[in-house]
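Researcher: We're teaching a course module on how sequence relates to structure. For the next exercise, students receive a sequence and then see the predicted structure as tokens, so they can try to spot secondary structure elements on their own. Here is the exercise chain.
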Amino acid sequence: QVPLVESGGGSVQSGGSLRLSCAVSGYTVSRNSMAWFRQVPGKGREAVACIDQVGTTTYVDSVRGRFLISQDDAKNTLYLQMSSLKPDDTAMYYCAASRLFYCGGWRDVANFGYWGQGTQVTVSS
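Model: And here is the predicted structure for the students to work with:
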């Protein structure tokens, strides 16, 4: 298994910002597709954003314009910059890696074979 470690979660007020990080070991993030998912108790894991091997990004409608997925190739790290946060964004956030090059099928958790341990984001109204 390839290690992925999330960090940067916390508690913020509605309208605030956070940046999540995912440190990756064992492979180069720019050579495959990477994604962020989120999950609340009793619900399935929801795809939030994806970035493919050439840097093309995809977002779920509810976060488009507020969230930005990116990579720092020098640090081999994946990021999720979150702005204008809402209480509905409260969840455990996970980074995930796929051996596929592109983000086709990115909403399906089965296409991502490597997962981090998660970092909690809580947004108060």
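Model: If you want an answer key for the exercise: The first strand starts at residue 4 and ends at 7. The chain is about 0% helix and 45% strand.
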